[in-house]
Amino acid sequence: MKKRGIFSGIILIGFGMYFLLERFSLFPSFHTWPTLLFIIGVAFLGQAYIGKDYSTILSGVVFTGIGVHFHLASRLSSWPDHISMVTFIIALGLLLQYIKTKQALLPTVLLFVLSIIFLFSHRLQQVFTSVTFDSLIHIWPLSFILIGLYLLFIKKG
Fold it and tell me: Whole-angstrom Cα distance, residue 36 to residue 41?
């Protein structure tokens, strides 16, 4: 049974704490938009796991993950700061949602693999300095198109 009001309750508590801490100038480095994304993500995750509304897991992981990512990217020079982190966060959300719903395993695994490859593509380029690898890096979106066409037209059921 899905519980109502969990999302709204967590949002109100989170935003209330955010603005209260801002009012008293406590933790000024957290008075940024990534913190607000983090609060929204936690509310979605609360709705997902406490309210048993598993359709909100992906939203929760994406909001929370992007909030955490931007906080870490602004504080740690070694934190990867490129688009592959966003696809990795989405893949993580899909994986957590798959664990609860048992749906969409193939796109989850493919997005995870592609995210990992492109997260470390600069290191792979150093290892494989061939023209072929450089060419593949620029045309990788074709893999999404081919997989999507396969899922739409070839795989039935």
Answer: 9
